[in-house]
Amino acid sequence: MRIQLLDNITGKWAIQWIVIWFICGVIALSAGFWLTTDHTTLDWFYLAVSFIGLVCVVSLSFRKNVMGNGFGMGATAGEVIVQATSGAVGLMLAPLFNFFTHVYGIFYWSKHTDPDGDMIPKSASKAVWLITAAFIVIGLALFPTINDLLASYGYAVVEDDNSQFLGFISFFWINVIAFVLSITAQAAMILRYSFNWWLWIIVNFVWLIVNLMSGNFIFAIQTMVYQINAFVGLYEWYRSEQG
C-alpha cells in the first residue's frame, strides 16, 4: 500500500523532512536535558551522544551507509563510555554489540548499494522469520540465567528489584524483552532485512515504558523521536525493496 505523504517524505521532501525532524529532535532532547538533569559533565556528554544518535538513526532509515553506520559507531562508543563512567557496566553490553555490528555493516552495506550509493534492503523468507522468532524465544529463556551469571561477576544487565508496571507486570521482564528485541532488531538491520523496523517499533514502545518507570525522561523523549523515524524507515525500506 502506497501512502502519498510518506512517498513525499521519503522522496522529494526527504531533505526537508530530515532537517525538520532533526531540529525537533534536538529541541526535544535539549528541553529534556535542561529540565530533568543536573547538567553535569556526564549529562552534557550524553546529550552530545544523543545528537550523534539522531544523525545515525535518520541516516539508517534512509539507507545511508557511511552516515548511518559511521555515526552509529560514534553513538554506541559514546553510550559505552556513558554507562562505564556511571558505573552501569552491565548496560555496556548492548552498545558494545551494536558498535561491532555497525563496524560490520559499514563494509557489508557497501557491497549492496544501488547506483545512488544507498543500501539495497532485502525481504525475509519464512526461514528467516522462523530463525528470528527462535532467536527471540531462546534469548528470553536464557537471559535470566545469563544475567544471574553476569551479576555474580558484577556485570548484571538488568537488576531485579521486584518493581512492577501497572501493578502486575514485572519491570525486570519488561527490561529483558526490550534488551532481547533490541539486539535482534539491530542484527536484522545490519543484515539489511526490512522487517527490522517492525522490531524497532515494538522495542521503542517497550523502552518508553522502561524510561518512564525509571524516571529517565530524556531517554523517553529520545525514544519517541526515534519512534517517528522508525515508521518512516519502515516505509522507506519496504518501498525501496519493492522498487
From TrEMBL:
Record carries keyword Cell membrane: yes
Localization in the cell: Cell membrane
Predominant place of localization: membrane
Keyword Signal (UniProt): no
Membrane spanning residue stretches: 14-37, 44-62, 82-107, 127-146, 166-185, 197-221
Entry superkingdom: Bacteria
Alphabetical UniProt keywords: Cell membrane, Membrane, Transmembrane, Transmembrane helix, Transport
Topology of this chain in the membrane: Multi-pass membrane protein
Chain's role: Required for nicotinamide riboside transport across the inner membrane.
NCBIfam families listed in its UniProt record: NMN_trans_PnuC
Family: Belongs to the nicotinamide ribonucleoside (NR) uptake permease (TC 4.B.1) family.
Protein name: Nicotinamide riboside transporter PnuC
Species the sequence originates in: Psychrobacter namhaensis
